[in-house]
């Protein structure tokens, strides 16, 4: 009987519980034993009670729960080979040879490294007599499948990550609330949203709320120009009768010299130049917690099911797959290729090759 484990890692995102539910139930449906690794890589390194077999009823009601009920943690020990060796021993002790990891690019890189190192870890366990040769022979290959759970939607090769639309929805609700008080006082609000080095949440939120101006990392504001551009736009809208001004700024926003642009910088400009009564709202972790929207429940379920199918189809020769969605179709992509492209986006931004960064992020929307 195949034993498949699922874990969540990195920052939590809405829909991670729906992933765990889908993996556990579909693995059982396919005749496998299902396990959950608690507290991310930390649980893998600690082993024992952190690796638990899951039954159908254990994930009842998890579809609509926010966060991740099996926990997540940043784990320093897993970054060292000694930690990964302990993790390998724990997995083998539980009889597990397939691991489905739901997390962001950092977590998925860790997973793939674990897989590439796996044969040498097993060999070392055998050489040090931590396991017998017979056991080692049963576990020469580790199957890894990646699912992308992140509110940032910053992974290349997939259109949407699990949690991004829930977060977007929460941002829109918050901006709607801000709008009514802004209109009452004829105020300007600078709203800072999450997304790390990715502007997806900011752009989509600006579109969905009819914001006046948006700052994102991938299309940096031009030094010496953006101040006039923004003030002119806001003045035009005010002249047309608008009683509020909403500026969305991604937390990773930069100018064309790569200098961060902060919500405070923008506020000061609006006060000094346009004499607008201006407030800053940093939305923070309300964007990340809370129930998943319908889309994320659906995405998590379909991708969770495909992750189990991918694990069952995996061979030592095939590269670790990442479950993506492209043009509304659930798709498998080589995990390391997707991670590499994602890292190249950051490199392109650092090299001021902004158009190339957009292309790497999503070739279809590069313009
Ligand atoms: O990657 C998800 C995310 O919420 C980012 O948008 C944000 O930059 C970061 O995590 C915040 O991390 P922490 O919860 O550790 O403060």
UniProtKB/TrEMBL annotation:
Transmembrane segments: none
Region (N-terminal catalytic PFK domain 1): 1-367
Binding site for Mg(2+): 105
Residue ranges occupied by any Phosphofructokinase domain in the UniProt entry: 3-310
Localization (cell): Cytoplasm; Mitochondrion outer membrane
Active site per the UniProt annotation: 152
Residues binding substrate: 150-152, 187, 194-196, 251, 279, 285-288
Domain of life according to the entry: Eukaryota
Residues holding ATP: 11, 74-75, 104-107
Family assignment from sequence similarity: Belongs to the phosphofructokinase type A (PFKA) family. ATP-dependent PFK group I subfamily. Eukaryotic two domain clade 'E' sub-subfamily.
Assembly notes: Homotetramer.
Function text: Catalyzes the phosphorylation of D-fructose 6-phosphate to fructose 1,6-bisphosphate by ATP, the first committing step of glycolysis.
Protein name: ATP-dependent 6-phosphofructokinase
Organism, scientific name: Schizosaccharomyces japonicus (strain yFS275 / FY16936)
Shown chain mapped onto the complete sequence: 194 to 560 of 942
């Amino acid at each position: 009987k195949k034993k498949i484990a699922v874990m969540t890692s990195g920052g939590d995102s809405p829909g991670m519980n729906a992933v765990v539910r889908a993996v556990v139930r579909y693995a059982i449906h396919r005749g496998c034993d299902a396990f959950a690794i608690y507290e991310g890589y930390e649980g893998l390194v600690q082993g024992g009670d952190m690796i638990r077999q899951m039954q159908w009823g254990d994930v009842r009601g998890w579809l609509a729960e926010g966060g991740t009920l099996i926990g997540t943690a940043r784990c320093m020990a897993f970054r060292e080979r000694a930690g990964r060796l302990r993790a390998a021993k724990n997995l083998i002790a539980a009889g597990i040879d397939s691991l489905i990891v739901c997390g962001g690019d950092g977590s998925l890189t860790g997973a793939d490294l674990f897989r590439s190192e796996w044969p040498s870890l097993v060999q070392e366990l055998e050489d040090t007599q931590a396991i017998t040769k017979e056991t080692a022979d049963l576990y020469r290959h580790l199957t890894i499948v990646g699912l992308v759970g992140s509110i940032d939607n910053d992974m290349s090769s997939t259109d949407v990550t699990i949690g991004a639309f829930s977060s977007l929805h929460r941002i829109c609700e918050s901006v709607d609330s801000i709008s009514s008080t802004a209109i009452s006082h004829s105020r300007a609000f600078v709203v800072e949203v999450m997304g790390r080095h990715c502007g997806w949440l900011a752009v989509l939120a600006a579109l969905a709320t009819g914001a006046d101006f948006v700052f994102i990392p991938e299309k940096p504001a031009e030094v010496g120009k953006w101040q006039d551009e923004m003030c002119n736009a806001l003045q035009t809208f005010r002249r047309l009768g608008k009683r509020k001004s909403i500026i969305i700024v991604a937390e990773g926003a930069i100018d064309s010299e790569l200098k961060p642009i902060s919500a405070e910088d923008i506020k000061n400009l609006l006060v000094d130049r346009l004499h607008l009564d201006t407030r800053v709202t940093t939305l923070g972790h309300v964007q990340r917690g809370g129930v998943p929207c319908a889309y994320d429940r659906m995405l998590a379920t379909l991708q969770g099911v495909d992750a189990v199918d991918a694990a069952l189809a995996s061979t030592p020769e095939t590269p670790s797959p990442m479950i993506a969605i492209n043009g509304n179709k659930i798709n498998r992509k080589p995990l390391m290729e997707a991670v590499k492209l994602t890292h190249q986006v950051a490199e392109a931004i650092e090299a001021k090759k902004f158009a190339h960064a957009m292309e790497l992020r999503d070739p279809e929307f590069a313009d």
